[in-house]
Amino acid sequence: MSKKIEGTEKQNQYQQKLQKIRNQCQVATKKIRLGLLEGCEIKISPKDIMYIFDSIYALTNEVGNAQAYKNSTKPQNNNRVEKIDQELIDYFQEILNEFIADIYQRLNEFSGEKESVLQIVSKTYHDYKAYSYWLYKMFYYLDKFIMPSVGTTLCTTSLKLLKEGYFDKCNKLILNTILQFIQETRKNGILLNKQIKQLIQLYSVMGSKEVELKYMKEIGEYDYICKKQEDAQRFYKEQFQSHLLTETSKFYKEEIDNKQKFTTPEFVNWGNSIFKLELSMCIECYPKSQQAIENKLKMILVKDQAARLVDSPTGVGYMLQYDKTEELKQLFSFIYRTKECITHIAKAYQNFFEQQGQLINNSIEQELQQIKDGRQMHEAELYFTRMLEVMEKAQNILKNQLQDEPEIQKSYSGAFMLVINKNEKSPIWLAIYTDIIIKSDKGVNEMETDKRLSKIVSLFQLLYQRDVFFRHYQKFLSNRLLNQQIQNIQLEKQLLQKFKGETGTNVLTQLSSMINDIEQSNRFASDQQINKNTKFDLNVFLLSQGCWPINSIQDSIIKPLHIQHVLENYEKLYLEKHNGRILTWCFNMGQGELIYKIQAEKYYLNVNTMQMIAFLIFNQGVSFSIKNILEMTKIDKIDLENSLIPFVCMKIIQRDKQDIEDFSDENEILKLNMSFNNRAKKIKILPNPKMQPKRISKVKEQNQEELQQMEQINKQREFVVDSQLVRLMKSKKTIKHHELLENCQQMISIFKPDILFIKKRIENLIEREYIRRDEKDWNIYHYLN
After folding, report:
1. Which residues form the signal peptide (predicted)?
2. Which residues neighbour 363 within 8 Å (Cβ) at sequence distance 6 or greater?
3. H or E segment and range at residue 130
4. CA 486, 492, 498: angle at the middle one, nearest 5?
5. Distance between CA atoms of 242 and 250, rounded to whole angstroms?
6. Each residue of 691-749: pLDDT tens digit?
7. Separation between Cα atoms, residue 344 and residue 349, nearest integer Å
8. pLDDT-based confidence at 299, cuts 50/70/90?
9. pTM to 2 decimals?
């Protein structure tokens, strides 16, 4: 009985001490609330806080010791101690609930005024955090030693009470207030009140299951720190961000509808201002939603509007047409926010320059009267000069306004590739243009030379029929290499090296061999010192058979006595050095200079070898019949006619017939004009295609030659495609039809084979038993070993 009375007295003592703690807390919380209400410094000393802390510590420690003693005798009876601990926890919650009820009542008084709601919620949330922090310091011992057994903390309890007793009740009011201020900001273009940040912070922490409450010295505020961001982030997105995005979408869609009459530059300027405003709002008030807001704006302002902005009457086409480069740059930067929309700019860019290129294709024939450096420009030179001007403009825009964007770079290549290859003459014209550029390179510095060659290569890169280009290029290269006056070995090597970077073919090997032949010829002549003779200067080019574009070799021509000895001497020296080789003289290819003396005047005539042979006959007499010349030289009649016409035109040789094209009478007498006189002492007598007679047989011969060339090119193409198909089949063994077609096209750079051509070659390989179709699936091929 005495023990029971003793236990009751103990409990009474505990309750008295608990009430004393309550009284101390009431005094302290009154001071805290007064300081918070007046917005001044809280007048409570650390000593008062420590006194409450010590009281709670002493009570819980005393109860704990008593409980430990009882557990040693009756471990099952510990309800009283738990009750004391719970009473302290309940009292902590009671103090907070009183504060929450008070601030909720204050908010209800001004629920219809958004300015007041903003002020009150911001203030009360700040005060509640401060109030909770001071209580946390008083009850810290509970948080450290009692709350872990409950499974929570005082700070988490504080936040939970605020959510249940305040936030859940006024969530809708707070959200609407925030959204109203945001909408007003968007309408006015100025951030009206930064205090909404405090309201938004509620949504950042209310979903947290576990928090800490700390005093942030750097900003002088109290704040909840979430320990598990996933829960808080999920709540923030569901309760605030989703509503924010919905209102954002609704607001700006209405704004866009009202701005349909804006020009593209006006819309871009407006859109940029919106991105700037929204970014500042995000940074200032809701940084967690910055990415989501930016993505929503990109969708509404950029992705949904890109096609309209680009294709509008003031869009890309207009900007390119009238050089609105700065506006184009701004449009690109605006649309570049959503990279997938760059496709619209790339398409418009390509369409514009396709049209510009097609204008050149259509108008080139009307512009052939252009004069450059005192001469009429060749249509090839005019065409590619115009095309390069447009390409340079396109490149400058691509580099300076469009940031060398890869997709637009493809559009650049696609536009000019389409335009240039629409012109069937492009391969031969490019060969002619290259020839003109190389011949005009004398006196140009290295930097300018490299620039010119790079332009040629840039055009070459766009060609589909590169094999046709090389066929013509080889002829022009031959003429340049065999003409010492315009010969430039280093330049030819430099250009050839650039071509090798773009394509690797047997044609390039042939071109390299041609250059190598000239270098070896020069070295041999220099080593043997055989190019000088008192009566005849000889320069010989040793051409490898099969590498040079030689259609026919006329080696049956009778050599004039003036040069026969020199040629025989050269043959002897060469064969001594290169035993077993065969030399064949190509009299239809060389050039030379004749010294023509008449009436005490001396003229230097630039002629080809066959002209030289024919004209040297006149050293034996003043006049000869055409038949005599044919018999004495064995030159083909047509070649003889072409050789003599320039002499007739220059009045060096006279004839009775007025029609210079008529050589039908072989008995006609040609005689030297003994009274010939010309102010120019150096005269170019080389056959000119414009001087040559218009022979039907010659036209047929040219057509036949062109057909033969195309037939050779087609055979070479068949060989190239066959070799690539076999190579693919050999490596893959088994391959699908579309994959075989795609890979074959990608592997061939010398020309662009179409799908039908490749299909025909596949059928041919099947017939020749290189490959076979799968018995079950005809879209699959197998390689036959």
Report:
1. none
2. none
3. helix 114-138
4. 150
5. 12
6. 666 554 555 555 676 777 788 888 988 999 999 999 999 998 999 999 999 999 988 88
7. 9
8. very high
9. 0.79
